[in-house]
Design a protein that fits this description.
Largest sheet: 8 strands, mixed
Number of strands: 14
Strand order of the largest sheet: 8-7-10-11-12-9-13-14
Strand content: 15-25%
Shape: elongated
Number of helices: 19
Length: 511
């Protein structure tokens, strides 16, 4: 009782002194007390408010990163006694928030740290003042603070990219306005695990994508814009769109499907590029059919030759510029992919697709614009087994040998053709595989003429080819002729083998 009475007496003395002493002296005493406390404590404290400044308008990104970081380390497994759970429409998972005035412990470089979430109610207002307080050892704060905050930021950005909802954008024809894109949730189920690709090609693509996503420091060091170009070419149904979806799901990027026919001119094209976000894939499908871009150079040369000597060079240039108004030109598209405007954002992938690569202007697909050329043809044996595993849940079957023989003899089908047969007969695996074999045999026997076979040899080859910066238009014709020769040899061998089997079967029936 005596101790309690002395304590009450001391508190009463403090109250009297607070009312008697000047406010300046009280403030000085309070500062002295805090300095003494900071001198004696072995920890340093850093406050991170929700907003920058005092107006409460400019959001503090570091506060948001701390919140995301605490989600990524799974605070439910920590010693925090209270957590707030929530789920938003833009995220595909449950998020954790540290309850007001509770602490989450963490470790970094062998040192113990902690985060405390402070929430204070503003006087005479319904608003709340939120902040995080970081507690770390005072002796190591110089060596810990900046590396730890960099670790928090990078971990938070990676977590945000994985957890947020991805969007599929398309241009609405009003690119010069505030927003030229409209979007819907991107929920395409294609992944590299379900994609019908040969294992080697799949490995090369995933390694290239991973190196690109982790290449921020490299691209900045060599002075290149942080972007990557992919040219996907091959027959219809070979899986070009599915590969794009798998790339987006693998990297957790948004997809911008650019429809060039809705773009009025080069200025609108640049405006659309500026409005795209970082960590995105910009897709232009069927680049050879979208617009007659390859004819620009031919027309320009023809017009200039006819008018040479009749008009000055300046007048001809003015007329050329006037003719380009109101439409997207090859020059505008080249600047879009590899010009100065292409560096207005970071971590972007530009994808062109086409069924006929020879119809695309060589300037569009050269190295530096389309860095990676991926040929998607018909199914090889590994891609076929992947389709059977996806559709029929089979890992092996006696008809696999017959399928492999058909593939070796030039009877390969595209993934879309095989997928449709398997989907239609998914209730009976034997019937599905027999129909696939029949379709392959029909393609071998009922193929077109020699010239047609050579022109379409790319669609008959079961192999897929990845060319990184090594493809040039001068070599395409040579490779096509070599493929025609190989196909012709395979065709002759198959017909000889088929004829011998027919004769031997007839002899057995005669006996």
């Amino acid at each position: 009782m005596e101790i309690l009475s002395q304590l009450w007496s001391f508190l009463g003395l403090l109250t009297v002194l607070q009312n008697v002493l000047p406010s300046q002296l009280l403030s000085l005493l309070h500062s002295f007390y805090e300095s003494l406390q900071d001198l004696l404590t072995p920890y340093s404290y850093f406050e991170i408010p929700e907003f920058n400044g005092y107006c409460g308008v400019d959001v503090n990104d570091l506060y948001r990163h701390v919140n995301l970081y605490l989600n990524s380390v799974n605070p439910s497994a920590s010693t925090c006694r209270r957590l707030t759970l929530s789920r938003s429409k833009s995220s595909n998972r449950i998020s954790f928030t540290v309850a007001p005035n509770h602490t989450v412990h963490d470790t970094f470089s062998g040192h113990a740290l902690s985060w405390t979430h402070h929430v204070e109610t503003v006087q005479d207002s319904l608003e709340e003042k939120r902040s995080f307080t970081l507690k770390l050892p005072k002796r190591h704060r110089q060596a810990l603070l900046l590396p730890y905050l960099d670790h928090v930021t990078s971990r938070a950005e990676a977590f945000e990219r994985v957890s947020r909802e991805r969007r599929l954008f398309t241009n609405n024809g009003h690119g010069s306005f505030e927003s030229g894109w409209v979007s819907v949730p991107f929920r395409h189920p294609s992944t590299f695990e379900t994609l019908a690709l040969e294992p080697e090609l799949k490995k090369q693509i995933t390694e290239d994508l991973t190196a690109f996503a982790n290449g921020r420091e490299f691209y900045h060091r060599v002075g290149r814009a942080w972007k990557r170009g992919y040219l996907l070419y091959g027959p219809p149904g070979s899986g070009k769109s599915s590969l794009i979806a798998a790339m987006a799901n693998y990297l957790c990027y948004d997809v911008y499907d650019l429809e060039l026919t809705k773009v009025s001119d080069n200025s609108e094209l640049r405006a659309l590029l500026i409005q795209t976000t970082n960590r995105s894939i910009i897709v232009i499908e069927d680049i050879d059919c979208t617009m007659d871009l390859t004819a620009d150079r031919t027309q320009t040369k023809t017009v200039s030759s006819k008018r040479r000597g009749r008009r000055s060079e300046m007048g001809a240039r003015a007329e050329g510029e006037e003719g380009e108004k109101g439409r997207v030109t090859l020059s505008g598209l080249l600047n879009f992919t590899d010009g100065l405007w292409s560096s207005c954002g970071e971590e972007r992938i530009i994808v062109f697709t086409t069924n006929h690569r020879d119809n695309v202007d060589p300037a569009l697909v050269r190295c530096g614009r389309m860095d990676v050329h991926v040929y998607l043809g018909t199914c090889g044996i590994h891609a076929f087994k992947s389709l059977v595993s996806n559709y029929l849940s089979l890992q092996s079957h006696p008809l696999f040998d017959a399928v492999e023989n058909c593939l070796a003899s030039g009877g390969a089908l595209t993934p879309a053709q095989i997928g449709e047969i398997l989907l239609r007969n998914r209730a009976n695996a034997d019937v599905a595989l027999r129909e696939v074999v029949s379709a392959m045999q029909a393609k071998m026997i009922l193929g077109g003429g020699a010239q047609g076979e050579c022109d379409d040899v790319a669609t008959r080859s079961p192999e897929s080819v990845l060319m990184v910066g090594s493809s040039s238009p001068e070599n395409w014709e040579k490779k096509r002729k070599e493929a025609c020769t190989n196909w012709g040899e395979k065709k002759v061998k198959f017909l000889v083998r088929l004829r011998s089997l027919t004769k031997s079967d007839s002899g057995r029936r005669g006996v």
